[in-house]
Amino acid sequence: MAERGERGHMGWSAGDVAAATGGRLCGGGPDAWVAGVSTDSRRIAPGELFWALKGPRFDGHEFVGEALRRGAAGAVVQQDACGAHPGPLPGGASRNVIIRVADTLRALGDFAAWHRRRIGLRVFGVTGSCGKTTTKDLVAAVLGRRWPTVATRGNFNNLIGLPLTLLGARPEDRWAVLEMGMNQPGEIRRLCEIAGPEAGLVTTVQPVHLEGLGDIEGVAAEKAALFAALPASGVAVVNLDDPRVRAAAEGLACRRVTWSLAGAAGAEARCRRWEPRKDGTLAVFDLAGTVLECRLRLVGVVNVANALAAAAAGLAVGVPAAEIRAALEAAAPAPGRLRLAPLPGGRRLLDDTYNANPASMRAALETLARWAGDRPRVAILGTMFELGAEAAAYHEALGAAAAAAGLSHLVAVGEFADRVARGAGGMPCTALESTEALLEWLPAHAAGLCPEGGFVLVKGSRGMGLE
């Protein structure tokens, strides 16, 4: 469950909250003060307002009483949840703020938008099928060199997390860098209504969330909603290497800043060259004629692309080149995202367990091959979720990609492990039906799985729990 942001702000009056959400103040006075917002009754701080959200498997209205007992200033509740009202409240209902709204999820977004406008916060939106969390972190680091900047924590990127990030912004913050995720049509459009981005970046468009969006064209249409939301005075940061991202940027009224890892003609931000280093990457970027040699702590061609995209974002909003380089060089990889770690016997672990889709799987295998060089390499690959009717075919193609990566051994885990093994052909491969089966199998085989000095890649969708 989403929770409050960690950054302080000056708070709001109950009357402001009611007015911003179109709600009705049923308890407490309009001048009553609330110090923040939380959707988690277990972690609410005294003086905060508990926002009772309803979902398919939970109902926050059941925890209003608990939140008030923990010191919440009051609660925002849904009009159709009157029966779930906590009844007699500690100290008397008149001392607690109760605001009734038509829909608590929509009201949360409306209130976040009101707060953003009130403090004059500028928003840089980041979305895409791959790399959006790392790119968001890098863009925030770049902008943070120049201005006070707040950013989405982790991948807190949905209709709950994005509003809470905005509500954690302080009056002195000048930029918010917000990751925008989705798994159903219309989600990014609503996130943009809340965020009001004046700058936007789409990393790539790839086959992800196909169960909710149908096909890759559905994914492209959803991602394009970020560019479509930008005002004429805004700026779109466009990946020229992705034809669907290019198409999404056609006909925009706003300014465009383009980038290309492949060095496409006309790109304002280009990669001249890059090469693996033991614990990172040397990347040479050309930003509108200014050459930056960056010693990144990140590995993988995908992270070179993410860094280049962030450099283009800095160029788009006026961050000097030297500050862009300093921000990129200081950035460390997030847990579970192409992170190198030592293992016994001189082995190296490439931990990319946070999530997976066909494109990110191919990129991780390419990273493994480039960084391992002529050393032994092993991959433990889990199921890729939300691929719809084509899931089996995508997993078979993954097996073929693993075979092409020159692995000494492949371990396929999950529902489609047999299809991965089939795609891998005759290469050494172990197919296991679940993560639990992997944990049972591994102790007896780990020592012989990867020779000393070798590399081990571990990657799968979040639901596999391979971390």
Automatic annotation (TrEMBL):
- An example Gene Ontology CC term for this record: cytoplasm
Catalyzed chemical reaction(s): D-alanyl-D-alanine + UDP-N-acetyl-alpha-D-muramoyl-L-alanyl-gamma-D-glutamyl-meso-2,6-diaminopimelate + ATP = UDP-N-acetyl-alpha-D-muramoyl-L-alanyl-gamma-D-glutamyl-meso-2,6-diaminopimeloyl-D-alanyl-D-alanine + ADP + phosphate + H(+)
Q: What is its EC number?
A: 6.3.2.10
Against Gene3D superfamilies, the record matches this protein to: Mur ligase, C-terminal domain, Mur-like, catalytic domain, MurE/MurF, N-terminal domain
A Pfam family reported for this protein in Swiss-Prot or TrEMBL: Mur_ligase
First-listed, main subcellular location of the protein, grouped into a coarse class: cytoplasm
Alphabetically sorted, this entry's keywords are:
ATP-binding, Cell cycle, Cell division, Cell shape, Cell wall biogenesis/degradation, Cytoplasm, Ligase, Nucleotide-binding, Peptidoglycan synthesis
Q: Which InterPro entries match?
A: Mur-like_cat_sf, Mur_ligase_C, Mur_ligase_C_dom_sf, Mur_ligase_cen, Mur_ligase_N, MurCDEF_CellWall_CoF430Synth, MurE/MurF_N, UDP-N-AcMur_synth
One example of a Gene Ontology biological process annotation = cell division
Q: Where is the Mur ligase central domain?
A: 126-313
Q: Where in the cell is it found?
A: Cytoplasm
Recorded GO MF terms = ATP binding; UDP-N-acetylmuramoyl-tripeptide-D-alanyl-D-alanine ligase activity
Domain (Mur ligase N-terminal catalytic): residue spans on this chain = 35-113
Q: Which domain of life is it from?
A: Bacteria
The first-level EC class reads ligase
Query: Pathway it acts in?
Result: Cell wall biogenesis; peptidoglycan biosynthesis
The Mur ligase C-terminal domain extends over 336-462
Show the NCBIfam families listed in the entry: murF
Q: What does this protein do?
A: Involved in cell wall formation. Catalyzes the final step in the synthesis of UDP-N-acetylmuramoyl-pentapeptide, the precursor of murein.
**Name of the protein this chain belongs to:** UDP-N-acetylmuramoyl-tripeptide--D-alanyl-D-alanine ligase
What organism does this protein naturally occur in?
A: Dissulfurirhabdus thermomarina
